[in-house]
Design a protein that fits this description.
alpha+beta, Rossmann fold, six-stranded mixed β-sheet, 21 strands
Length: 401
C-alpha cells in the first residue's frame, strides 16, 4: 500500500501518565494520514510488549470516578469492523450490537514504520452508552485523541496499559502558485487573447498517485443541486472549468441574470483558481449579449480557523471589478479535507443584493462540506434560504489531488 498523504498530519505527544516503555508512544511511533474515505488512517508501531491499541476520549475525570469511553465508528469499516475486544476477561459481542470500537490487535507491515497497528478513524465518532453518558463529535484540526496502548491483545485490561493523548495538527501542502495575471483594462469588448497557465493539478509523473472525486463531495454537491433545482456536474480537471460554466449558463433563460460564484480557495484549488483568474471574465464578456443585464458577484471560502471563512464581492455590472477581485484570490490553507462549503453558499444566498428574476449560484470546489458544522449553518438552512429567495445552485466538482 502506498502511503501518499493528502495532507501532512502532525500528532504532538503530551504524555500524562508514567508507564512501561513499550506502552509510551513518541511521535516517531505514529503515522496518520487523511483518507479519501472521509477520516484518517492511523498507524502505530508495534513493538514487543505493545499488544494492542484503542482510541478513547482524551479527557478524564481527575478523580477517576467517571468512565473514560472508547471511541467507535458509527458504521462497520473493513479495517477495524471485525476487531475483537476483551473486557473483564470476556470477549464483547460488540459487532452484534453494532458497536465498532476503534481498536487494533492486528499487526501489518507499513512503509516507514515496519510492523504496525492500523485504525481507521472516521470524521464523526461515537462514545458512551444511552444509559450513561453518550454522544458523538467531529474529529478535525486541533482535535484531541487518546491512543491507549495495552500490553495484551484485544485491549485487555488484565495486563498493563497507558494513555497517550495527542492533538491533531493538519497542514495542507500548498503547491507553487501560478504567475499572477495582470488585471485587464475595463472592457467593453472581450480581450483578444486569454493567458492560460498549466494546472499544477495535472503536473504529475507518478501513475500511482491517487486522485479523483471524493465520494462525500459527490454526494453533497449532488444533494445541494438537486434540492435547489440546480445541476451537479463533475469535471476531470481545471481546464474544463470555464467551459462547464459556459454550458451551465446556456441552460438559463435569456434576459437579466444575477450570478454569484462560490469558490473554494483552499490550497488544493490552486490550479483551478488560475483558470478562474485567466478565463472566467473573458468568457462572460464573450457571452454577455445573452444575459442583459448581467450582474456578477463572488464569494470565496476556506475553512474554520483559516485566514477567513468567507469573503464576498457584491453583484457588479462592471466585470473589470470582478476580474480584479478574483485576481487577488490566493489558494492556501484548508486544514482537513472538508471545507466551509455550506457557509460559503449561505453567505452568497443571504448577503447578496438580488434584484433580477433569474438568480443563480455556481459552486466550484473539490471537497465536501463538514459532516458536523461547527456553527449553525447546515445544508437544510442553505436549501431553505435558497427557496425563500428563488435562488438555484449549480455545483461543479473537481477531483481532489
Amino acid at each position: 500500500m502506498k502511503l501518499t498523504p493528502l495532507f501532512v498530519v502532525i500528532a504532538l505527544l503530551m504524555p500524562v501518565v508514567a508507564a512501561a516503555e513499550p506502552l509510551v508512544l513518541h511521535p516517531e511511533d505514529t503515522l496518520i494520514v487523511a483518507s479519501r474515505e472521509g477520516g484518517y488512517s492511523l498507524f502505530v508501531r508495534a513493538v514487543p510488549g505493545r499488544g494492542s491499541i484503542l482510541i478513547t476520549e482524551s479527557t478524564r475525570d481527575p478523580e477517576r470516578r467517571e468512565a473514560n469511553y472508547a471511541l467507535r465508528n458509527p458504521d462497520w469499516h473493513p479495517v477495524n469492523g471485525d476487531e475483537p475486544r476483551k473486557l473483564n476477561g470476556e470477549f464483547l459481542n460488540a459487532q452484534e450490537q453494532g458497536r465498532y470500537f476503534l481498536i487494533s490487535s492486528t499487526v501489518r507491515n507499513v512503509p516507514g514504520l515496519g510492523a504496525a497497528f492500523e485504525i481507521f478513524i472516521p470524521y464523526v465518532v461515537e462514545y458512551g452508552y444511552p444509559w450513561t453518558r453518550s454522544g458523538e463529535f467531529f474529529i478535525g484540526d486541533d482535535s484531541w485523541i487518546n491512543i491507549r496502548t495495552f500490553e495484551l491483545p484485544f485491549a485487555d485490561y488484565e495486563g498493563g496499559f497507558a494513555d497517550n493523548p495527542f492533538v491533531i495538527r493538519m497542514i495542507q501542502p500548498t503547491p507553487a502558485e501560478p504567475t499572477p495575471i495582470p488585471t485587464p483594462p475595463p472592457a467593453v469588448e472581450p480581450p483578444t487573447e486569454a493567458v492560460s497557465e498549466p494546472s499544477p493539478d495535472q503536473a504529475t509523473d507518478d501513475p500511482e498517485e491517487e486522485t479523483g472525486h471524493l465520494e462525500q463531495a459527490v454526494e453533497a454537491f449532488a444533494a445541494i443541486a438537486d434540492t435547489t433545482d440546480g445541476i451537479a456536474t463533475r469535471i476531470d480537471d481545471g481546464e474544463d472549468l470555464i467551459g462547464t460554466v459556459r454550458t451551465l449558463l446556456e441552460e438559463t433563460p435569456e434576459g437579466g441574470l444575477d450570478l454569484v460564484f462560490v469558490i473554494d480557495t483552499t490550497a488544493s484549488m490552486v490550479g483551478s483558481i488560475a483558470h478562474v483568474q485567466n478565463e472566467l471574465v473573458p468568457m462572460l464578456l464573450e457571452d454577455a449579449a445573452r444575459n442583459k443585464p448581467l450582474r456578477v458577484g463572488v464569494v470565496l471560502f476556506r475553512d474554520y480557523f483559516d485566514e477567513y471563512l468567507t469573503r464576498s464581492l457584491q453583484l457588479q455590472d462592471d466585470l473589470a471589478v470582478v476580474q480584479r477581485y478574483v485576481n487577488a484570490a490566493r489558494a492556501i490553507g484548508g486544514g482537513d479535507i472538508p471545507e466551509a462549503v455550506y457557509e460559503g453558499l449561505y453567505m452568497a444566498i443571504t448577503r447578496t443584493n438580488w434584484s433580477q428574476d433569474e438568480r443563480l449560484v455556481i459552486l466550484v470546489g473539490d471537497a465536501p462540506p463538514h459532516p458536523r458544522p461547527r456553527g449553525t449553518i447546515t445544508r437544510e438552512r442553505v436549501v431553505e434560504e435558497a427557496a425563500n429567495r428563488g435562488v438555484r445552485i449549480h455545483a461543479i466538482l473537481l477531483p481532489h489531488p
